[in-house]
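Appendix B.2, paired examples.
Example (i):
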Amino acid sequence: MPMPFVFLKSQYPLYLANEPHFGKSFTPVLDKYTQKPIAEVSLATSEIIEKAREAGKKAEPILRRTSVFERKRVLKHCVDQFQARHEELSRVLSLEVGKSIKDARGEVGRLIDTFTFTLEEVGKLSGEVVSLDNSSRGIAYQGFWKRI
């Protein structure tokens, strides 16, 4: 079965505080096999970097007060979007990184597994080592974290 064409825009912004921003210059994203540009992404300017720092400072107290329910809602939305766009994400990853489509699909599957696992564990963990074997791709892997 032929692979459907992945529609890519010619240029992509960077996102900051949920808003697209275009810098003054772009960097090409190359097809790893042909070395031909497949798109361009905006580079941050010093002004955009400063806005990012300010947005992070503003968001930090809000995120600390975010309820477990709201965190789960956000993570569930991410999982739903990744699942709905699984093939698109896989094909773009294959183009950008040069992975086989099979490996790219596996990577997107791992992305979904990671967010699903996080969704299931939000509110339970207080800083510890956890097994990541909740999916076939996570067998023999562990994650750890500590909030400081």
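Example (ii):
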Amino acid sequence: MKINNQLIQQLLEQAALSPRLRQNFDMRTSEQDVSQRMLNAIVPGSKIPIPRHPISNENVFLICGRLDEVIYDSDGKEIDRISLDSSQCNFGYVMPAGTWHTVEVFEPSVIYEEKNGQYKQDGTETLEEYKAKLSK
């Protein structure tokens, strides 16, 4: 599997055409691999819900572009921003397990994301889901 400019440009083009304004590329090499490893191409305007991953850190490495990792408290109040900008050599962040976060994208960007646990079975929830559970 080659990660080169051709793949990155293809993912960014697909992201721009997607209703979600992002495109994932699965980096796992078998179905037995229950981690989450992917390239995520995201263009400005993409609205990503605020999730947290309770059992795993999320490793984020910027391949190209510029975005902020935005950190929230459990009330949805922004408490921190981590700027990732390939032109400034700010390439990544390790998001601690259980941290509410999302990204704000300033230019077409591709990140590599890695988390432990199988998607949908790893306890991940959005802030909206969490608040709905509290209000019941």
